[in-house]
Amino acid sequence: MKPIPYGRQHITEEDIQAVVEVLKSDYLTQGPKIAAFEAAFAEYVGSKYAVAVANGTAALHLCTLALGVQPGDKVITTPITFAASANCVLYCGGEVVFADIDPETYLLNIHSVRTLLEAAPRGTYQGLIPVDFAGRAVNMDVFRQLANEYGLWIIEDACHAPGGCFTDSSGQRQNCGNGEYADLAIFSFHPVKHIATGEGGMITTNNAIVYQKLLKLRTHGITRNVDEFSNSLQFALGDPKTPNNQDVAEWPGWYMEMQDLGFNYRITDFQAALGLSQLQRLKTGLARRKAIAAAYEAAFENQLFIKGQSGLMEGHAYHLYVIQVENRNGLYNHLKAHHIFAQIHYIPCHLMPYYRQFGWKEGDMPHSERYYANCISLPMYPTLTIQEQEYVIETIKKFYA
Length: 401
Ligand SMILES: *Cc1c(COP(=O)(O)O)cnc(C)c1O
Fold this sequence. Notes:
The protein is built from 14 helices and 16 strands. The protein is of the alpha/beta class.
């Protein structure tokens, strides 16, 4: 039988046509599809600005760069995430401090964060990186209040949650990545995510200054914008004898300045075309994911050995469907023997060999470690058929029978 993975991309004929159209055009890298994808994505999540980049990790790196993370700066994140959420701090020479998760939501626990902040002198920490883990939106309103108390910035890792939302303290619906509470939010378009562009990522923000910085850092720190130039026009013209800058009306068209140490983190125009095409199906994909989650919830409701995702949640984007089970490794192997390829999200980041060198060890994050010991992610993607899901459910039930 056909293997059933935990997640997979969905490419339609329209997607393929959208890519082919760009391949036949004049632009392969920065072209009109990137701007169109950025505008459509910003509109979808409700942010003022969006910057498309090479991947989600590059998006995180540009965020820490744009926020000015320096050697010695301390930033707090969750251990239950993909390593990149933490690594972006190290790229700038900063230090990652993990705070434990809430055992009910599996999200960064605001009380653990507060405990860290209260225990250190003011100014010890610079920022927070909460993660909308599995697609469940972090209540960014309460994190913003805490961040304001301590003068911290917030990067929302929303890779799991395009289309996710939460209700803020004034009863308003807030989309993940809309920039209302977090300074910056990032998304990934890796094939297992909601939108697939092969590799790809997006940063959203409402901050015009940070937005301009991101644009520059995405492409080597180079600007071609006359208003941003630092050198004199005389220098630009390469003519020391030019009598007076003001006499020359035009800067030469080829002139540009490298002002910051940036990177080449551009996405290609054909990837942006694919992303734009996939964005049109994000809503229907989310509806299908919700239906799959509901079917799992119903199936596991009265099961002794399985704990579901604590009820169906309105704003959950269901990138993953994570359950907590007894004998997790036994279940994983049983599913694998039946061609069902579940996954573990995540091995706690603080226990990765690389992070252990900074002193992190077993027992530091008890809730995260307990969660990890029992977690397993079941197949969750829009093209998972009803029959396939029934087969997954039956296979799990048989294991515990
Ligand atoms: C996928 C993912 C990333 C990294 O995205 P890439 O596009 O693979 O670089 C970062 N954070 C989380 C939570 C992710 O799921």
